[in-house]
Amino acid sequence: MRSMLWSIIPEALVLAGVDENFSLLEGTVAGRPCRLRRQSDGSASIEALCSTDPKDFLRAELAPGRRIFLPK
Q1: Cβ pair 27, 66 in contact under 8 A
Q2: Residue ranges per domain, the chain?
Q3: What is the pLDDT tens value at each position of the chain, 72 positions in all?
Q4: pTM: predicted TM-score of the whole model, two decimal places
Q5: How far apart are CA 63 and CA 32, in angstroms?
Q6: Strand partners, 28
Q7: Neighbour-count burial of 34, counting CB atoms closer than 10 A to its CB (0-12 exposed, 13-18 middle, 19+ buried)
């Protein structure tokens, strides 16, 4: 069953990349546990912060989408 998407942005643009397969890495950023998505350029982006401290969710360096460089 296909659901309706109510947006002025074309559906193909909104859903671009939804079918991509990717795996998440477990790691730490600034001493806090996170799930990371490896990027093609060798960096990673924060997908989810896995902290129990509410203050961590206000820290800009832990924001989802932030790019970080992984050690080799």
Answers
A1: no
A2: 22-69
A3: 456 678 888 888 887 766 666 778 999 999 999 999 988 888 899 999 999 999 999 999 999 999 998 776
A4: 0.67
A5: 12
A6: 33
A7: buried
